Amino acid sequence: MIETAKTVRPLKAPERTSLFANREQSETGKRVRQYFETSGFSRWSAIYGSGDIPPIWKVIRDGHDKALETVVSWLSTDTGHTALDAGCGTGTLSTALASHGYEVDAFDVSAPMIHFAKYINAGRTKGIPPRFQVGDIAALAGEAKTYDTVCCLDVLFHYPYEEVSEMLKRLTSLASHKVIGSFAIRTPMNDFWMAVGQKFHKKNRMTKLHMFTYDEVERILYRAGFKMTRTNRVKFFFYDSFLFEAVRVGA
Ligand SMILES: C[S@@+](CC[C@H](N)C(=O)[O-])C[C@H]1O[C@@H](n2cnc3c(N)ncnc32)[C@H](O)[C@@H]1O
Q1: pLDDT tens digits along 153-184
Q2: Residue 5 lies in a domain
Q3: Within a domain: residue 102?
Q4: pLDDT level of residue 20 (50, 70, 90 thresholds)
Q5: Alpha carbon nearest to ligand 1 atom 27, residue
Q6: What are phi and psi of 174, to 5 degrees?
Q7: Rounded CA gap, 159 and 155, in Å?
Q8: Which terminus in the chain has less CB density within 10 A, N or C?
Q9: Which residue has the CA at smallest separation from atom 22 of ligand 1?
Q10: In the predicted model, what is the mean pLDDT of residues 117-132?
Q11: H-helix or E-strand containing 147?
């Protein structure tokens, strides 16, 4: 059939292409970005890779692999879902999401991480390759497009409670159905190990580990209209990541 002016479907309003607004970074945000653009980039890209690394880094690699396995087991098996991977690092979760049939947008505050993610994942992903871009969770714009699932794995523990609260507010506003994330859980034992660790660590470390209780995180999600539906604490030697899945109430 020849398309005439009458048969052509009206164009939808153009979708906002930028997920981000211009926002000043917090002091913690600047320090974290600087770390992941320099020494943190070398360290974490090696940890998330497959080459030889020191045994202490291997503990993190193996723990992270277990966390990834759990997250993947929580994914929908239907195809055609959309996902946002916030703080994607080298893209390990982004590519797993794509392999599960999700259409994925992924971003990270560190430009070298994003260059590396694009480079190592090029041509390797099953499904639609994730779209990687540089961006900051703290600068996510509320009215940008929404995703079925928003993920944020092993990122939030770099930030203090007030900033995590704001970040989760932005992340949940982009999730039409669920959010999957992780945080470092505060327990008396972890408080003890943290105090011991601080005695031996350099005073001028670029990043700091922030721990929260389950109730603190649940409260933030509840205020955003989300209910915790699944949790799993992945503990492997000193790797300790508390995974959660939260679903929009009434979705
Ligand atoms: C420990 S890595 C985890 C990477 C990835 N999520 C994974 O699990 O494989 C933390 C990542 O979070 C990123 N990041 C930290 N703060 C961020 C922010 N405010 N916005 C976006 N990315 C951030 C870092 O650059 C780094 O790549």
Answers
A1: 999 999 999 999 999 999 999 999 999 999 99
A2: no
A3: yes
A4: very high
A5: 89
A6: -95, 0
A7: 8
A8: N
A9: 87
A10: 92
A11: strand 147-152
- The enclosing domain of 87 has a CATH number of 3.40.50.150
Instruction: With respect to residue 129, please indicate whether it lies within any of the assigned structural domains.
Output: yes
Q: What is the pTM of this model?
A: 0.92
Cβ atoms of 237 and 59 within 8 Å: the answer is: yes
Angle at 243 between CA 192 and CA 34, to 5 degrees: 75
Burial category of 141 from C-beta neighbours within 10 Å (exposed 0-12, middle 13-18, buried 19 and up): middle
At residue 198 the predicted structure's pLDDT band, cuts being 50, 70 and 90, is confident
Domain of 131, in residue numbers: 55-74+81-248
Given a cut of 50, whether residue 14 has pLDDT beyond it is no
pLDDT band at 10 (very low <50, low <70, confident <90, very high): very low
Q: Which ligand 1 atom is at minimum distance from the Cα of 87?
A: 22
Q: Which ligand 1 atom lies nearest to the CA of residue 91? A: 9
Count of structural domains, the chain: 1
